[in-house]
Amino acid sequence: QKEVEQNSGPLSVPEGAIASLNCTYSDRGSQSFFWYRQYSGKSPELIMFIYSNGDKEDGRFTAQLNKASQYVSLLIRDSQPSDSATYLCAVNSEGNQFYFGTGTSLTVIP
Amino acid sequence: NAGVMQNPRHLVRRRGQEARLRCSPVKGHSHVYWYRQLPEEGLKFMVYLQKENIIDESGMPKERFSAEFPKEGPSILRIQQVVRGDSAAYFCASSESRNTEAFFGQGTRLTVV
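The joint structure predicted for all components is written out below.
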């Protein structure tokens, strides 16, 4: 059974702080890693993807991947109240479906 | 990523009726995934299709549920003889190839009364 684990939270951070979201996965053959943001009542929105070990930065977001530890994280710098949402980690290996974690609820406190 | 179109956005069916959910992927995408989401819960995989083929249907109930993605036209998720437990949000996502990023549609909210 391929699993993606996330801390369900809720995670609360003050406005302007760094929010750190973590995800582990069980399938060592996983090749692609994604972070989605989902606001309540809305559909998931892709915010980052990463394929190689290391860091990938896009604006205030940084995705970090460590395949040896089977660990992927998302850092949100200068957190804003509008970042309050559920963040979904997804993992994919070629030819397979996307496996999603249950999501981490983030609240940014003004 | 605004290209995945799902319709209808909201669907109300009486118990025992059929629900038909449609998904038009991003132009050029040939991979489609269907997920179900209950309130305050995560995304549950249902089925993964490529044009005219079902690649993985391990998450789809064996009875009453079926999916297709024909050569022409949208992908269809069909639920026959709906029951109250089928009430959920159904999301479709599409990707260009097997392990590239997938984009979601706005979802169909199914309510069974």
